[in-house]
Specification:
It holds the Pfam family GerE. The protein is α/β, with parallel strands linked by helices. Helix content is 49%, strand content 14%. It has two domains: 123 residues, Response regulator (Rossmann fold); 59 residues, Winged helix-like DNA-binding domain superfamily/Winged helix DNA-binding domain (Arc Repressor Mutant, subunit A), CATH 1.10.10. The chain has a five-stranded parallel β-sheet with strand order 3-2-4-5-6, sandwiched between helices. Strands 1-7 form a two-stranded antiparallel sheet.
């Protein structure tokens, strides 16, 4: 499968073009996929350094310790993050770095959610080497790239609303994101308290902050908003 361009919305912060990308971070928990992708990119782009991380937590720590890469390739489903959660979390750390979502899941709703959450592009794991390299080059040159045949399932106004919602979720702290994930799993405050080893009063304080940041009045509404951008689940 090849990839089709999507027109960028609004002004973009200055970014290096494809020829200036020298260091990338691949976040993928499949060692063979990760190693093959790293080798392909080193050869195709002459990269000086390809960093890898096997989980979202490892990626966050690595960025904190080693600094920002020039670009990121992010697997949709990781051991500690599913759906748009990884993208929302990394976008908070890397506001101006192009992040490419890669997955075998080409469902329209998931692609739309990823693009709304700030992905520079969304590509299939089944792409040929030539198509993969071409798609990444276009993204690193500033294009928004999505799979061929992808058509957003809603009007632009709906996409903008999802993008704004993703920005609100990006303001959550890591602990608040963990608590929200447990809320979406149907956990009560007492269960969240036990699972995270924090006081129930602390859980309540975090939930109040979460509701304020995402503009939700009830837990059910918070879950609905998270599902709107496919924050935790790919399916």
């Amino acid at each position: 499968m090849t990839a089709a361009a999507m027109q960028p919305k609004g002004p973009q912060a200055p970014r290096p073009n494809a020829d200036q990308v020298r260091e990338i971070l691949i976040v993928d928990d499949h060692p063979l996929m990760c190693d093959a992708l790293a080798l392909t990119l080193k050869i195709s782009f002459g990269l000086r350094n390809v960093r890898t991380a096997r989980s979202l937590a490892a990626a966050v720590e690595q960025i904190r310790d080693q600094g920002e890469p020039d670009a990121v390739i992010l697997d949709l489903n990781l051991p500690d993050a599913r759906g748009a959660e990884g993208l929302v979390t990394l976008r908070r750390q890397l506001p101006d770095v192009p992040i490419t979502m890669i997955s075998a899941d080409l469902e329209t709703a998931m692609i739309s959610a990823a693009m709304a959450a700030g992905a520079q592009g969304y590509i299939s794991k089944s792409l040929s080497r030539e198509a993969l390299v071409d798609s990444l080059r276009r993204m690193w040159d500033g294009e928004f790239v999505t799979p061929e045949g992808y058509q957003p399932d809603q009007a632009n106004a709906e996409d903008e609303a999802r993008a704004e919602l993703a920005r609100r979720f990006a303001t959550l702290t890591p602990q608040q994101m963990r608590i929200l994930r447990l809320i979406c799993q149907g956990k009560a405050n007492k269960e969240i308290s036990y699972e995270l080893s924090i006081a129930e009063a602390t859980v309540k304080t975090h939930i109040t902050a979460i509701m304020s940041k995402i503009n939700a009045r009830r837990r059910t509404q918070a879950v609905l908003l998270a599902n709107t951008i496919r924050l935790f689940e790919a399916n």
